[in-house]
Amino acid sequence: MNHGTTRYVGLDVHKATITVAICEAAQPPTVFGTIANDPTAIGKLVKQLGRAHQLRLAYEAGATGYALYRQLHALGTACDVVAPALIPRPSGPRVKTDRRDALQLARLLRSGDLTPVWVPSPAQALRDLVRARYDAKADLLRAKNRLTKFLLRQGLTPPPGTRPWRARFEQWLTHLTFEHGPAQVVFADYRTAVRLEQDRVRHLEAALGRSALDAPQAGLIAALQALRGIGLLSAVTIVAEAGDFRRFARARGFMGFTGLTSSEHSSGPTQRRGGITRAGNAYLRHVLVQAAHNARHVPHRAAALQQRQAGLPIDLVDLAWRAQHRLHRRYLHLGPARSAESRGGGGARTRRLRLGGRPADATGATRLNAR
């Protein structure tokens, strides 16, 4: 390799192996070979390819995580972890192999057509804890569904007016008995699974609360809780998933990262815009959507919000209060109250919607924070 020449390397990474392709200026890419996915083999590869500062590597983000990126970064080699959904892929070829994927990565890296993703540092392990809680919540929902569907197959329904998984519902479950032994065993097993998952969620949420106090972003987590609809769990999720907010030059970039921007399919004079793209961080999008539902209520400082704002700078509290008014005005402009007025449906229903009626698209939404 000539001095001053950058060598572009595409890596198709798997659990046990890495397929390597090399591409230099004005030359077609070539396959270097397949190596083992372990630190010794990777270090040897960097030495074989040339000077570390003249190498630029890339691989797709996936299940293997960022261990390879961190090792290459420690060796002084530039490495990009690219977003798989944003890799240009031709529609014609129907053959996919590790060699072809590595060659394509090397070629696109040289042309500058790859989009890198943000790589969290090892110190930002709070994100793993946040996602573990989401996994526990999903497992809890499955356990509850198995139990309720079992009761439905047995022809058992709770008394009218009983809200699922509240105190009356739990009392009703306690007094249930089954004539046949196998059904009683299944019921006991399903209910034990629900209790175990509930304990798991409580344990992870307590760990999140402790970790948030010791995290380097503790000040940012406290500041976010000054906003209505963002409690501890939401603030921790936002900070853990977004990372460094300074990497977003404008709010539009942050919205694109969350997938909350509108989709569009326009051509010529015709403009067609649809729903949100959802091409972003699903955890962050979920939290922000749930927090945005609070904008339908009239601005108000509830006791829980005042408790979260205690001790915060006064300018931050004022900013949160102005945000309540701005978001509520935006809700009235876009929400069902305006639609009802445009249809001539004024009166009590319109006034009720203006005072905080539930939007039609928020039915059944699970809120992470009460206020």
Q: Which parts are unreliable, with pLDDT below 50 for 5 consecutive residues or more?
A: 340-371
* Chain-averaged pLDDT: 88
Total strand segments: 7
| Apparent shape | globular
Fraction of residues in helix: 40-55%
Q: How many individual helices?
A: 14
Percentage of residues in strands: 5-15%
Number of domains: 3
CA-atom Rg in angstroms: 27 Å
What is the rounded distance between the termini?
A: 61 Å
Largest sheet: 5 strands, mixed
Q: Strands of the biggest beta sheet: in what spatial order? A: 3-2-1-4-5
Assembly type of the chains comes to single chain
Model description:
By secondary structure, the protein is an alpha/beta fold. The protein has three domains: about 5-110, 2-Layer Sandwich (Nucleotidyltransferase, domain 5), CATH 3.30.420.140; about 125-215, no CATH class; about 225-360, no CATH class. Helix content is about 50%, strand content about 10%. It is built from 14 helices and seven strands. The protein has helices at about 40-50, 65-75, 100-110, 125-155, 165-175, 180-215, 220-225, 230-240, 250-260, 280-290, 305-310, 315-335, 335-340, 350-355; strands at about 5-15, 15-25, 30-35, 55-60, 80, 260-265, 275. A hairpin with an 8-residue loop joins β6 and β7. α8 (about 230-240) runs antiparallel to α10 (about 280-290) and α13 runs antiparallel to α14 (about 350-355). The chain is globular, with a radius of gyration of 27 Å. The termini are far apart. Mean pLDDT is about 90; it is low at about 340-370.
